[in-house]
Amino acid sequence: MIIEFGHFALVLALIVAVYQTVVPLYGAANGNVALMRGAAPASYLQLFLLAIAFAALTKAYVTSDFSVHNVWANSHSAKPLIYKISGVWGNHEGSMLLWVLILAAFGAAVGLFGGNLPPGLKARVLAVQGSISVAFLLFLVTVSNPFARTFPPPIEGKGLNPILQDPALAIHPPLLYAGYVGLSVAFSFAIAALIEGRVDAAWARWVRPWTLAAWMFLTLGIAMGSWWAYYELGWGGWWFWDPVENASFMPWLVSAALLHSAIVVEKRNALKVWTILLAILAFSLSLIGTFLVRSGVLTSVHAFAVDPERGVFILAILSVFIGGSLALYAWRAPVLQATGVFAPVSREGALVVNNLLLATSAAAVFIGTLYPLALEAVTGEKISVGPPYFNFTFGILVLPLLLLVPLGPMLSWKRAELWPAARRLWFAAVVALLCGVLALALQYRGPVMAPFGIALGAWLIAGSLNELGERVRLFRAPLATSWQRLKGLPGQSVGMTLAHLGVGVMVVGIVAITAWRQEVVTSLQPDETLQVADTRITFLGETPFTGPNYTATVGRFKLERPGREPVILTSDKRVFLPSRQPTTEVGILPTWRGDIYVAMGDKDINGARIVRAYFNPLVTLIWIGSVIMFIGGIFSLADRRHRVGAPKRSKSVQPQPAE
Fold this sequence. Notes:
There is one protein chain. The protein is of the alpha+beta class and about 650 residues long. About 60% of the residues lie in helices and about 10% in strands. The protein is built from 20 helices and nine strands. The model is unreliable at about 300-305 and about 645-659 (pLDDT under 50).
C-alpha cells in the first residue's frame, strides 16, 4: 500500500508541477499578483510530494520488498543497510527520482529565499523550474516508473552492481546531482531575464549564489568520484577522461566561467548577453550528461539505462529545453543592451580571457566526448578518443588560463596598466621559480616539463596568498591593522583566494602523479618480494574471508621502508552474491611523499598472484585541493552581499513633534 501511495504522490507532484509552470507564468504575463504568488507554495507542495515518493521507495529497499520490480532488480536481502539505502539511487529509475527530488528542493529554495526578488521575475523563474519538473516527472510516470510491481513477488533480489557497493558511491551521486540540478536555477533566471528583457546588477547578485552552490557540489562530486575510482577500481589512476567523467566536467568548466562572467555584469553592467548564454549552456551540458548516462548510448558502471524508449524520451527533453532556450536567446538577446565600457587591459578584460579559455576548454572536451558517438551514429564506424587527445588539447588551453589567474585580481576595474600589476606579484614569481628549480634538482631525470608544472602550481598558490597580502596591506601596515583588515574582508574575497589556492594545490598533485608515478607489475608466490620506489613489498600469503554479502580472498603484504617500521597492507579479491561478480579492494599506504598502492590480481598459470604496485607521488593533493576549493565556495556563499537583491520600499517615518 505504501508503494501505491508513493506512486500516487509522484502523479500528484506532476500535476502540481504543471500548475507551477502555467499559472504563475500567466500571472506574470498579465500582471496578476495573486497568480504569481501561487508559484512558491506550489514549489513547496511539489517538494513535499516528491519527498513522500522518495521515502516510499526507500522503505521498499530497506525492507527488501521484492514485489517492486526496481527493488528486485537492484537489491538483495543480505546487503548492508547503507547499500540498501544507496541502492535507491544506484539504478536508473531511483536515480531519476532523486534527480527530480533535488530539482524540487532547489525550486522550493528559490521560493523560500527569494523574498527580495521582484514578483514577476520570481514567478517566471519558478515557472521555468516547474517546466523542467514536468518534463522529468512525465518521464518517470510514463516510461521509467520506479514503483512498478512484479507478480508473483520473487523470494530474493538480483543485487546491486558490486562496484557501486562502496561508501563513496553512496555519497557521490547525490553530490553530483545537486551540481547538475543546481544549474537549473541559473538556467531559469536566464530564461526569465530573456522573457522580461532585463539583466542588471541585482539579477547577477541573484544568479551567482545559485551558480556557486551548483559549482561547489559539482567540485565535491567530481572529486569524490575520482577518489572512488582511484581506490576501488584497482588501476592506480584517478582520471581517465571517460565520457561519464567528462559529462560532469563540462558543466563544471562552464559554470566556473559563468561565476566569473556574472561578476562583470554585477560590477560593470557588461557581458550581459554572454552571461545569459553561459547560464543556458551550463544547464544544457548537465542535460547532455544526463542523456549520456541514462540513455544507454554508453557502456559504463555509471550508465544504467539500456531501453531505447527512455533514450528517445530524454533526447526529446534535450531538444525542447536546449533548442527552445537557444531559440529564445537568438530572439530576445538583442534587447539586452550592455552599458559598461572597459579597456582590454583591465579586470574585466582578464575575466573575458578567463571566460574564453574556460569555454573553449569545455568545447574541446565536448568534441572529444561526443564525436565518437556522432560518428558511430552516422557511419557505423567505431573510434575512441582517449587521454592523449584530452591531455594535449586541454593542456594547451588551460596553461595560459592558469598563468593569468593570479594576475587578474591585481588589475583594476575599467582600465589598468599591466606592468604595475605584474610587479606586485614578484613574491609569487620568486616562490614559483624556487619550487621549479627544487623540483628539477630532485627529479632531474624526470620529464622536462614536470618542474615547470610544479612551478605553475606554486605560482597559483603563492599568487593567491600574494593577492590576499595586498588586500590586507601585509608588511606595509602594522600587523594589528592587517589583522583587522583580514577579519573585515568580504567572504567573496576570501573564497576567491581559497578557490585559486585550491587549484594550485591540485595542479601540483596532478603534475607529480603524471610525471613521476612508478609502477611494477609482477607475479608473486608467498614470501616473494618486489621493489617500488624505496619500498620493499613482500607477499605474505592469502586467507579466505566471508563478508555480509560476499566471499573474499585477502592478500597480505609487508611494506618495508628505510628507517621506518614495517607496515602490513591487505588487498582483497571479492565475489559478491548473488551475481558472482568479482571486485578488487586495494591496499593504500599514504605518506607525505605519496601513496604506496598495492592491488592483488588473479592467479597466473603457475598459481602465483599477479600483483600491481604503484608509487603515486603527492596524489592526495588532488583531493585536498578540491576540498580547499569547496571551502572557498562556502566563504563566498556566506558573503552577505549575495543576499542583497532589489531594494525594498521602507515605510515612511512620521516626524515626532518636539517636546
